[in-house]
Amino acid sequence: MASKLLRAVILGPPGSGKGTVCQRIAQNFGLQHLSSGHFLRENIKASTEVGDMAKQYLEKGLLVPDHVITRLMLAELENRSGQHWLLDGFPRTLVQAEALNKICDLDLVITLNIPFETLKDRLSRRWIHPPSGRVYNLDFNPPHVPGIDDITGEPLIQQEDDKPEAVAARLRRYKDAAKPVIELYKSQGVLHQFSGTETNKIWPYVYTLFSNKIAPIQSKEAY
């Protein structure tokens, strides 16, 4: 087993179970789960320069542009140059992927292909706690008390873009941006695609793929 540091990326549309898969990879293999959404929230909360820039776009309902998110994530990666890591939510566009390519060679990129109907159903059952980014699904991991965050007791909301009428446009946006990113990683020979409707059925294949690259820190597959 090579002792080199593992550099991995996970791609998948909203509702693909990406967060769950990331948690399992982090738990089983000791990779740092680096989520762009998490770092954005942290930087906005701390009023850093890049956080304030991002906030201006988000307050207008706009996507955070490539140069802002790239600057934020590359700075985070610089702080973690001695760790195995898994990127989640970055890169989302070809410009971001090319910026990442300049600073490191990726070992693994996994992309989750989930049927549109499944995504639509999952997103319509999704409620979030905005301050922490905690996500609940009424089918898989409902809150203990309906409509209330388990940890803080604060109310949960359904995001506008999780509502059925917004989902199709949102998934189309993801697909358009992700297509060239997927093509790039395919051409580099690092892309692995997983298809299905259930995270628990996809997970053993993801586990096997990572096991070939890095020794698990737990003796058996944790679910």
From TrEMBL:
Localization in the cell: Mitochondrion matrix
Binding site for AMP: S36, R41, L62, L63, V64, G89, F90, P91, R92, Q96, R170
EC number(s) given by UniProt: 2.7.4.10, 2.7.4.6
Ranges where the record places region NMPbind: 35-64
Keywords: Acetylation, ATP-binding, GTP-binding, Kinase, Mitochondrion, Nucleotide-binding, Transferase
One cellular component term from this protein's GO annotations in UniProt: mitochondrial matrix
A Pfam family that the UniProt record links to this protein: ADK
Adenylate kinase active site lid domain location: 126-161
GO BP terms: ADP biosynthetic process; AMP metabolic process; ATP metabolic process; GTP metabolic process
GO molecular function list: AMP kinase activity; ATP binding; CMP kinase activity; dAMP kinase activity; dCMP kinase activity; GTP binding; nucleoside diphosphate kinase activity; nucleoside triphosphate adenylate kinase activity
Main location: mitochondrion
Region LID, annotated ranges: 125-162
Reaction equation(s) it catalyzes: dTDP + GTP = dTTP + GDP; dCDP + GTP = dCTP + GDP; a ribonucleoside 5'-triphosphate + AMP = a ribonucleoside 5'-diphosphate + ADP; CDP + GTP = CTP + GDP
Residues binding a ribonucleoside 5'-triphosphate: G15, S16, G17, K18, G19, T20, R126, V135, Y136, T199
NCBIfam families found in the cross-reference section: adk
Function description: Involved in maintaining the homeostasis of cellular nucleotides by catalyzing the interconversion of nucleoside phosphates. Efficiently phosphorylates AMP and dAMP using ATP as phosphate donor, but phosphorylates only AMP when using GTP as phosphate donor. Also displays broad nucleoside diphosphate kinase activity.
Domain statement: Consists of three domains, a large central CORE domain and two small peripheral domains, NMPbind and LID, which undergo movements during catalysis. The LID domain closes over the site of phosphoryl transfer upon GTP/ATP binding. Assembling and dissambling the active center during each catalytic cycle provides an effective means to prevent GTP/ATP hydrolysis.
Assembly description: Monomer.
Family: Belongs to the adenylate kinase family. AK3 subfamily.
Protein name as annotated: Adenylate kinase 4, mitochondrial
Organism whose genome encodes this protein: Oryctolagus cuniculus
GN (gene name): AK4
